[in-house]
Amino acid sequence: MTPAGLVIAALVIAPIVYLVVTSFTDSNQRTLYTGAFNWVGLGQYQAIFTNVDFWWALLRTVAFTAAMVAGSVVIGMAVAQMLTRLGSIIRYVVTVVLILAWAMPTVASSQVWKWLFQPGFGVINWLLTQTHLFGNLLNVNWPEDSSLAFLCIWLLIVWQAVPFIALTVYAAQSQVGSEYLEAARLDGANDWQIYWRVTLPFLRPTVMLMTILSIIWDFNVFNQIWLISQGGPNDATNTLGVFTYKQAFVSFNFGAGAAISIVTTILLMLFTAFYIRSLLRSGEDL
After folding, report:
1. Cα distance between residue 260 and residue 254, in whole Å
2. pLDDT in tens, 197-253
3. Are 95 and 83 in contact (CB under 8 A)?
4. Across 140-276, where does the E strand assignment appear?
5. For residues 185 and 194, is the Cβ–Cβ distance under 8 A?
6. Contact 33, 175 (CB under 8 A)
7. What is the pLDDT of residue 35?
8. In angstroms, rounded to a whole number, what is the distance separating the alpha carbons of residues 57 and 52?
9. Taking the model in full, what pTM does it have?
């Protein structure tokens, strides 16, 4: 286990230790050139906890995460259920398409997504205009509208998350014993009742795992938001990830950026600990 331990120590533990140390300093742009910094103790943490922008960023992050996780999990479970009803050839084609969508790098997909929603010649605006349901949307700039920017980013992240959730849940659903389904049908249960009363209890550990992973991933989303809206307009999409980046690499306040990163990590660790505790209480095996 030594080689793996050395890699973990070099790529995970050492950066975290450096991040913690930096959060207790006033490291800034001067530090890049001179290496000089001052120890400020808990000063950076006091500053961010009294910063109204930090609390708004945290609130937006929680709201973003809730919306994205809910959409990803619900749609992913629906796609998994659909896969169980498809023929083998169509299911294979859909599986390949899902894998290709999931494997696309976030930077590439964000750039393509931004082009799809581009005002003037974006495909989405053109299609919506052709429906005549919302009027002429050809010149609508999604990233410049608070609600539309959120919707655009939500669609992108859900589109990227659904394949992994769908394939994982489908794999778990395929392990549900056919005898349970047949017994439910013999008792007169319809398809919805079978799914709700028989299939879903079997899927609970998998769905819970997908939910906690989605929360961790979506809570830390940065690439998609920065490439599409850069936290705008008017900070409408300025989540903790974007707020941290601006503090550390736009304002060059590395100490504050490190402190926000530590707080974010602690929040996620607390949530993960709560999830594991609930899992142990329910008697599920880890």
Report:
1. 10
2. 888 888 988 898 898 889 988 998 999 999 999 888 888 899 999 999 999 998 899
3. yes
4. none
5. yes
6. no
7. 82
8. 9
9. 0.87
